[in-house]
Amino acid sequence: YCCDQQANHLGDEQKDRPRIKSNPASRNKIYTAAMKLCRLLLFIIPFSLVELVREVSSFNAAYRDFSPAFGRPSNTALPQRQRHLKSSQLCLASTTPPPPYPVRVAVMGGGNFGLALATVCARQGIPTTLLVRKQDIANSINSNHTHPEKMKEFVFPHTLRATTDPEECLPDATYIIHAVPVQYSRIFLDSVKDHIPPTTPVLSGSKGIETASLGFMADILKQTLGNERPYAFLSGPSFAKEICDGVATAVVIASEDLLLARDLASLLSDDSFRCFTTKDVMGVEIGGAVKNVIALAAGMCEGLGLGTNAMSGLVTRGCGEMRRLGLTLGARPSTIAGLSGVGDTFGTCFGPLSRNRKFGYRLGQGETMEEILASTSEVAEGVDTSIALVNFIKIKCKGYRLDLKFPILFGIADILEGNLTPDEGLKGIMNLPFVMENFDERY
Predict the structure, then answer these.
(1) pLDDT tens-digit profile of 367-403?
(2) Among the options 15, 134, 291, 394, which is catalytic?
(3) Is residue 291 flagged as an active site residue?
């Protein structure tokens, strides 16, 4: 066939040459040989791919065995719940550069929530390094697998290591989790930013508004670590003690890069920790900040000895103010009604482990802010967030009498600033003008 085609396309100056005649028998032999070669290749290629996958898996296992700096002593056996397939799948989904083998996680912040997120990663066999401030804490985690100050009753996985040196854990991390309180995040990030590669994704678990800049965590991260880096934000009803205890927990991860959110959800999710995804970063940030202020109000309500009717009404109206603020800033109502908004609010307002609820309860009992702060080392994010949130609303939200649109948020700030007592704040809310339940809706 090829010879015939070649002869047909000869130029005019070559037409006088004798044409090469094709032989049907030769064509049949060539066709038969080509088919045999195809069958042979189809038989060989799958086995070659299988051998390649085996070699990569062997390399992963060997790397994990001989990588004590990232969470595993060389004489420690691999856990049964190793997740090589999930780690390799991460290379195919995200738009960020493919992670090196194996996936390694660095967690910045040794508080309760940082410990909880580090535990989520480490108990799945992922080499995880926790960046802490004190060397004695790092020694205790590395030697005894316990924390000497926080959640002392838990024994953490052997794949969780701790260090005080950012150079030891940040440069080679595949993913970095930020769990430092919002008010201290900017100073901390400025101190470690030189150790973080420019393409490493950062997942933030911190919630609130910075009092100095009135910025959310998304703003702080971009201002300190740059705009080009991929970011994600985790929120939802997630008490650290219950996470470490293996109690079923559901959270949401928000990112403008939805593929990154899915990769992180796949990395963190297991039988007791479930991650959902969204692109609504603003909605997740608003829910994580406002819910702490509502929890202060719920605690004051309980401290004053009011009943279930009052607390239920207060929390519901507080969620309405959260929704109104979210709509003003472009958040989706479905996000406010989801895990990071209403879900986290319910857990923080009614859960016995909530620091903000406990703080509000003590205020309702008559203690002063100075007395409460002097008697506890735990950080109640809602205290600083409340005042920053009111200033943020005054700048971002246009309109007359904003205190009538956000009476609970403004009232809590007045109480914390000493302008009102909890009892006076409650009376002020109960004597507001008569309005529609949702006056910003149109019928």
Answers:
(1) 888 888 888 777 678 888 999 999 999 998 887 788 8
(2) 291
(3) yes
